[in-house]
């Protein structure tokens, strides 16, 4: 359902493009910071997209079936802010004047949740493109779930712009390969082929044939020789939108700093303000006579017409959706499990997950697989996959089917050996507001995920990652695969919740929290390869204590030692404590499955858990020094402060002094 677009009035659309150019230039000059060149070069494309091609309603920016737009080269943010302002989103001219200022709605790079109409946080190059692949995948998966019953509630497309930086970054290559393999025809991207990067012309470092590369990925490619020819851009975009079997890349030859007599086609146009003198020359070259931040009425009228068409389409869509819900009650229920309050795990569902895992004596990765499948039965919008390690990660949804080019109704996704793109695509799936997605790989490969994990934390989206083989406990594969520093490296990312559960109860509660409890946030879950026992707990223990991040597993009056441990080392701490008690040293044991959550608790709770007057001893099979933030300067921090070795797990734990006997001896030495 798409209404006919208005015909292009060349004089007005050219005026609109110049409006965007001058707005970008003036905002960057006012801030004395920013990137004016790309917005000036892309202004014609933005006018075509926002007045002729995309379907949106600025008064309802969260409309489910809106077209998405992703500015992957996020440094060109003033292009997006200018377009959003002209389109009628809640972004005023005063907001434009506050470009790059503290707490403004126009930060240096677009930030999700801060500015209406911004679909994802972009800036680290290539990430936005990979997010867009995830959004397009979500669109196709939603079509498979809800299409074919008369009314089609999901028809939107994902449009975007990428520059040379995005084109060179590896994450974009990984994501482009996924999109081409799956044939994501919902995706239409324009490559801003302006031949310029910060250091100079692109040919100093980049000489490949981009079109042939994308054709090899399985993309539909189009060329626009003059990226400032609005009619040619419109024709290419409409052709791309009509292609349903392949994603489309439009290679548009543009000129960075278009309109600037002295900066056009120059790297100086990339990241430097034009300055007052060059701004005056730009105004003269464009025939622009209005003062800074003033918009011609006819330009506002042009954008308003498209917004009105979008509002009419949204109104009709909502009417048809209401009728469809009445005619298809089962699909309506499923719809609410994707878009309504039911898209998160129900508050009481943790009991079912705990019941399934209580008493388990296997590896926590196996427990995770069981928890995943219990939750999946309750959450049809839980989807995801592994980077070619599903059998090891235990990350398949049983009976969920696999997404393929021929069938997108499945819930399992083959990401291939593309960890970076997997995490970024997972972010895109989460940004669809329909799915709770997960990715999976070995913990040591979280290094490849990290840039996307950081952005998921910045955006505060519920994107999950399963990381198995979480320590030296994976054994013979050796130090290349044994995670030592990775858990702490992830804990250093603000807003990312890092879980390392110790047994079945903690694994169940980890999954229940990540899938449903709390505000939207990303969670990573680190699981063992080796078996761990079910932990003894005091009478009346409430599993929801796990959701406080840390809790007292074993209390003792008159204790001299408080162990603080995570994951497979919690049982080790218990066993070491028993040995110490045999020698007359009473011990408490604290399990800390999620330090990030524990640090958010009130001071009284944290003091009660950690206790006072005892030697605090951390035990974790990874680097030990950061635990001083919990144990204090007088604490004892036991771990692995070098790379691992190749040997069976039990041999390695003995080699690194992580046995009950060795730990007890070190504690006794510290008490002397």
Molecular structure report:
This protein has 672 residues and is an alpha/beta fold. It has 3 domains: 10-313, Thiamin diphosphate (ThDP)-binding fold, Pyr/PP domains (Rossmann fold, 3-Layer(aba) Sandwich), CATH 3.40.50; 342-526, 3-Layer(aba) Sandwich (Rossmann fold), CATH 3.40.50.970; 543-671, Rossmann fold (3-Layer(aba) Sandwich). It contains 26 helices and 18 strands. The strands form 4 sheets. It has a 6-stranded parallel sheet, with helices on both faces. It has a 5-stranded parallel sheet with strand order 1-2-3-7-6, sandwiched between helices. α1 runs antiparallel to α11 and α2 crosses α12 (297-327). The longest helix has 31 residues, at 297-327.
Describe the secondary-structure layout:
Elements: H1 10-31, H2 37-53, E1 68-71, H3 77-87, H4 93-97, H5 127-146, E2 158-162, H6 164-168, H7 170-182, E3 187-193, E4 196-197, E5 200-201, H8 210-217, E6 220-224, H9 230-242, E7 248-253, H10 268-271, H11 275-286, H12 297-327, H13 329-339, H14 350-357, H15 364-378, E8 382-386, H16 390-393, E9 412-414, H17 419-431, E10 436-442, H18 446-459, E11 464-468, H19 486-491, E12 497-499, H20 504-515, E13 523-526, E14 551-554, E15 561-565, H21 569-582, E16 587-591, H22 595-599, H23 603-610, E17 615-619, H24 628-631, E18 636-638, H25 649-655, H26 660-671
Parallel strand pairs: 1-2, 2-3, 3-7, 6-7, 8-9, 8-10, 10-11, 11-13, 12-13, 15-16, 15-17, 17-18
Antiparallel strand pairs: 4-5, 14-16
Helix pairs in contact: 1-2, 1-3, 1-11, 1-12, 2-3, 2-9, 2-12, 5-7, 5-17, 7-17, 12-13, 14-15, 14-20, 15-20, 17-18, 21-26
């Amino acid at each position: 359902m798409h209404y006919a677009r208005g015909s292009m009035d060349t004089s007005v659309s050219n005026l609109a493009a110049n409006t965007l150019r001058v707005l970008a230039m003036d905002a960057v000059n006012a801030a004395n910071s920013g990137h004016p060149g790309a917005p000036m070069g892309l202004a014609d494309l933005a006018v075509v997209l926002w007045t002729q091609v995309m379907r949106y309603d600025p008064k309802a920016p969260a409309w489910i079936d809106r077209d998405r737009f992703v500015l992957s080269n996020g440094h060109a943010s003033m292009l997006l802010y200018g377009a959003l302002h002209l389109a009628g989103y809640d972004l005023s001219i005063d907001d434009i004047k506050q470009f790059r200022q503290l707490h403004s709605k126009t930060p240096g790079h677009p930030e999700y949740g801060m500015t209406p109409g911004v679909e994802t946080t972009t800036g680290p190059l290539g990430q936005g493109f990979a997010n867009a692949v995830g959004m397009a995948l979500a669109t196709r998966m939603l079509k498979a779930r809800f299409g074919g019953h008369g009314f089609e509630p999901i028809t939107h497309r994902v449009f975007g712009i990428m520059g040379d930086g995005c084109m060179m970054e590896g994450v974009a290559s990984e994501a482009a390969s996924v999109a081409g393999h799956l044939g994501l025809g919902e995706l239409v991207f324009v490559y801003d082929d302006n031949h310029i990067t910060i250091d100079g012309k692109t040919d100093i470092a980049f000489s490949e044939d981009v079109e042939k590369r994308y054709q090899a990925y399985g993309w539909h490619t189009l060329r626009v020789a003059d990226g400032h020819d609005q009619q040619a851009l419109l024709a290419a975009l409409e052709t791309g939108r009509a292609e349903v079997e392949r994603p489309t890349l439009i290679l548009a030859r543009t000129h960075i700093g278009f309109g600037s007599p002295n900066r056009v086609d120059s790297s100086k146009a990339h990241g430097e303000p034009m300055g007052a003198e060059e701004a005056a020359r730009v105004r003269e070259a464009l025939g622009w006579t209005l003062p800074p931040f003033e918009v011609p009425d006819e330009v506002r009228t042009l954008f308003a017409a498209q917004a009105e068409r979008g509002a009419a389409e949204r109104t009709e869509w909502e009417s048809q959706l209401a009728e469809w819900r009445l005619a298809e009650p089962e699909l309506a229920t499923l719809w609410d499990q994707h878009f309504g309050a039911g898209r998160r795990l129900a508050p009481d569902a943790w009991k079912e997950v705990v019941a399934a895992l209580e008493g388990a004596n296997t590896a926590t990765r196996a427990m995770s697989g069981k928890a995943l499948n219990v939750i999946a039965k309750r959450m049809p919008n839980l989807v995801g996959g592994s980077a070619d390690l599903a059998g090891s990660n235990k990350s398949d949804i049983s009976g969920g089917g696999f997404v393929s080019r021929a069938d997108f109704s499945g819930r399992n996704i083959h990401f291939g050996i593309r960890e970076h793109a997997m995490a970024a695509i997972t972010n895109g799936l989460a940004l669809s507001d329909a799915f709770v997605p997960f990715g999976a790989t070995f913990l040591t490969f979280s290094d490849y995920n990290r840039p996307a994990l950081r952005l998921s934390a910045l955006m505060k989206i519920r994107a999950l990652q399963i990381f198995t083989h979480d320590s030296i406990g994976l054994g013979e594969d050796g130090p290349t695969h044994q995670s030592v520093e990775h858990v702490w490296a992830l804990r250093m990312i603000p807003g990312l919740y890092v879980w390392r559960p110790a047994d079945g109860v903690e694994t169940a509660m980890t999954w229940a929290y990540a899938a449903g409890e709390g505000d939207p946030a990303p969670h990573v879950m680190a699981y063992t390869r080796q078996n761990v026992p079910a932990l003894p707990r005091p009478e009346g223990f409430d599993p929801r204590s796990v959701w406080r991040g840390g809790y007292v597993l074993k209390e003792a009056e008159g204790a001299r030692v408080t162990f603080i441990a995570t994951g497979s080392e919690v049982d080790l701490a218990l066993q070491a404590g028993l040995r110490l008690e045999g020698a007359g040293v009473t011990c408490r044991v604290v399990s800390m499955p999620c330090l990030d959550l524990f640090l958010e608790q009130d001071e009284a709770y944290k003091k009660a858990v950690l206790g006072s007057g005892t030697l605090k001893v951390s035990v974790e099979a990874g680097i030990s020094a950061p635990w001083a933030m919990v144990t204090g300067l007088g604490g004892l921090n036991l771990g692995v402060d070098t790379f691992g070795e190749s040997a069976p797990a039990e041999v390695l734990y003995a080699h690194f002094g992580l046995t009950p006997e060795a730990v007890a001896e070190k504690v006794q030495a510290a008490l002397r």
